[in-house]
Structures are given as structure tokens and as C-alpha cells.
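Hello,

Following up on my earlier ticket. Below are the two sequence lines again, exactly as submitted.
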Amino acid sequence: MVVGKKKKIKWIIIVSLLVVFIAITTSIVIVSQKDLPTEDLRLAREAISLAKEAEANLYAEKLYKESLQMYDSAMVNWSRENNRFILFRDYSRVINFAKKSKKKADDSKEESIKKADNLSKNVEAAFVSLAKKIELYNKLFKDLPLSKSIFDAHNKSRMFLSESKIAHETGKLKEAEVLFKKADIYINHANTAASRMLRDYFNDYSKWKNLANDAIAASRGGNKVILVDKVAHKLYVYQAGKAIRSFEAEFGPNWMAHKERNGDKATPEGNYRITKKKERGNTIYHKALLLDYPNEEDRRQFAIKKKKGVLSRSAGIGSLIEIHGNGGKGFNWTSGCVGLRDRDIDDLYRLVSSGTRVTIVGSIEPLSVVTKGLDF
Amino acid sequence: MKSKLIIAIAAMGVAVLFSSCAKVPQAEVDAATAAIQEVKDAGADLYVPEAYNALVDSMKAANEKIEVAKAKWFPNYTKAKATLAWVSQNAVDTKAKSEARKVELKAEVEAMIVEVKALIEENKALIAKAPKGKEGREALEAIKSDVAVAETTVTEVEALLANGDLIGSNDKIKAAKEKATAIKAELEEAIAKKGGKK
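Thanks for your patience. The regenerated structure is below:
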């Protein structure tokens, strides 16, 4: 009876163990048959890595962030599923997230490459456009008596352009774009202000044209007439209606203005005459031809401006405007006089005499000719 | 026979117990995560980005290996642990590389600041020698403004450097150097022109 009971227990144990063994084996088989998300996660991770290499975090930020979020969601879900009982795990959501992550990463890489390429092209085009603006400044405005704020803006623009180029060369395209935009703002400010100044100055062109025509006409009788073109920085000697000589001329730093008062460093515009010829020893500027500035018209204008309060009460009209030597410095350095090279003043000195007419104008040529048709 | 059966059941129980006790290597995960953060704090993502990205990628791979192990009846974290150990070890190397690059870059920027400052001083001296007449100061205003812009940039670079922005300061000082060199050439040309005309 006891033996039979023992046998029964033994069989029960053996059968139980067999059932457990079969259950475990079946579970292992089921689990091993389950589609693990390993490969999908690996592909997603590699795609993210490639997207980062393509700087998708910079140029396709939204898609790149989404791909990271999808990857993280996949990992969180994977971990959650792994914490469930082995037979109840379902990796389909994990796989889904991993696949979406890969897709987003691939898309972000593609978008990043495209955007970076476009940005690079845009920045390169912007460099060309900016270089043209700088060239325009150098051609038209550089030698104008600009205010400090204008050339400061121009210089800052060039500095930002240099920085932008360095950023572009090192592949920092967004930084290059930001710097270029700053450079563009500064050069636009400089060019706009300078071009306004130039256009405003040429408002007097018809007056200058008449003065120049009169001067040339006055030379037709055989007298020599000096015609000074401030914009061209030229001094012409006319006789019989023709320019018989021309010399390079320099003026005061504020040459693009008509002289109004002493110390304004402007060169007067109008009709004058040589009142005195100064030989070497009588001038510190090699040789000089003293003009009759201020003439009657200058005095009249000076009085009006003083009366209107445009000029201060203490302002003086100025004097001692000459055509003299010591020039050829390559910039406008006088106090308002016309500076020539010594050899040129020597020649001019021989050509003219006291009483010779001197007509000084802003420009003989119209603005369109001066600017050589440049669009500004 | 009975005792043998009991031993077999106990052994199976121990095996099941042992296998269920194989824990996620959390200490290693935490150490690797902390190491990566330390490397990032050292600016490795900026100064040695490739090495830094490799660490981040390996950390992700290690996390995946952990989940792969967790998904099994009998988890084995050996592979995950090896990857985590690689991350921790390489984080040390990456941090060292980042620090070295920072030192190198800082030295480069500092040397360039000295160079640009010297160029600016040379330019100031050249301005004094540049052709000018009785109103020379006004005439050279544009060049002086250019020098001032370069000088301001150097000040900005020094501020960036003080804030630890080595990359920004490096780019800016390069631009300042270009500018100062161009001004010097312009002034030297003007002086040479003046000399030639005498």
C-alpha cells in the first residue's frame, strides 16, 4: 500500500517536471521565434549617426530631433516590454518606433545635405554680391569726404565679410550666413549714405555746367583760363576753347562742399582770378597762385547764411585760397587750396599770370558719366 | 532515489534563481553615462566632435545590448559590459584629447592676439609716417578707422577667450589678422609711393 503510494507520488513528480520542462521549452521556442527589434534599432542608430555626420542637427533640426525622439521611444518601449513576462512581450511598437526613427534620420540627413548645399551656394552668391558692393564703394565713394560713421560702417562690413568667409571655409555655414547678413547691413548703410551724399552734391550740376561752359567760352578769345574739376581731381588750362594742359589736383579733406567759412577745409566753387603769383621763398608750398577768394558772391552768401543762423556769429569767411605745390600725395590734404605736384605748379606758373580766370566746379561731367554708368 | 530527486529539483530551482538574478549592469551604465557627461562638459562635442560622437553611439549600442540580453531567458550582459567598459575608457581618452585641443587652440589664439596687436602698433607707427600735409590727420581718418575696427575686434576676441569661446575667438582673430595685414600693406604702399615721388 505504502509502496504503491510512493510510486504514485514519484509519477506525479516526474509528470510535473515533464510538464514544466515542456512549458519552458515551448516558451523558449516561442520567445526565440519572436521578432526582436535588435536589427531595427541598430539600423536606426546608424542612420542617426550618419545624419549627425551630415550635420542634420544644424540644417534639419526638426527631423533630426524627431528621429532621436523615435529612437528613445523605441528603447523605452523595448525596456518596458522586456520587463513584462516573457510570453506576453510584444516588440511590434518598438520595431515601429525604430523604423520611424531610421526614416526620420535618413530624411534629416538628406534634407541637411540639401540645405547645407543651398546655404553654401547662397552664401557664396552673397559673397559675390557683397564684394560688388565693396567694389562700388571703392570705385565711387572711397575718395569722397565721407563722415566717420560711413567709413566705420564700410570697415565693419569688410571685417564681418572676412569673418563670414572664414566661417564658410571651416564649414560653419549658419555662422557664415549670420556674419554675412551683418556685413550686408553695414555695407548697405555705408553705400546708401555715400550715394545720397554724391547725388545731393550733383544737384548743383547744371550750375557747374554753366560755369564750365562760360569759362571755356571765355578762353576762346585766346586768353588762358583755368578750369578745376573737383570730382575728377583735375586742373585744366583752356585756351581757344581747348584744354591745352591738365594736371592732377588735390583739395581739402572736405572738398565735396563749397567753401563757406574759415576752417571748413572745403574748396570754393565759382569764378575767381589769380591775384598774386608767389615764387619760391614767398610760400612754403614750393610756388603758389593766390586767388581772390572770397569774391563778391561768396561774401553775399556768407552774409545771408550768417543772418539765417546757418553760420555762427563768430565764423569768419576765410581767405588765402591758392593753387600751390607740395601735392601728389595721393589724398586730399590741403586746407581748401588746390594742391599740385611741384613740377606741375612749375609748368602752370609759367603758363598763367595775375588776373587769369580760375573757375572751380564740382564736376564738368554729369553724374552718370562720373559713375561710369554703375548702378548704385 | 528520493534524495536524488530532491537534489535535482533544488538544482533546477537554483539555476532558475541564478538566471533570474542576472541584473542589468547599472553601475557600469551609470559610470559610462557620467563619463560621457564629463567629456561633454569638457567641450569634447565642440573640440573633438568625431571622438565624442563615437562615444555617444557606443553608449546607445551598449543600451541596445542590455535590452537584447534582457529579452533572453538567461540574460548575459557580458557584451554590454564590454561596450560600457570601452565607453568609460575612451571617455577618459576623449576628455584628454579635448583638453589638449583646447590648450592648443588657446595658445594659437593668444599667439595670434599678440601678432595682431603688434601689427596694429606697426600700423599706427606707419600712419605716423604715411604721407600727410597740413591736414594729414583728417586725410588718414579712414585708415585709422580701419585700424580701430581691427583693434575693437581684438578686444572682442579677448572677451570671447575669457568666456572660454575658443572657436569663436579663433575665427574672429583670424579675420582681425587679415584686416591688420591688409592695412599694413596699404600703408606701406602709400609710403613707398611717397618715397618714390621725392
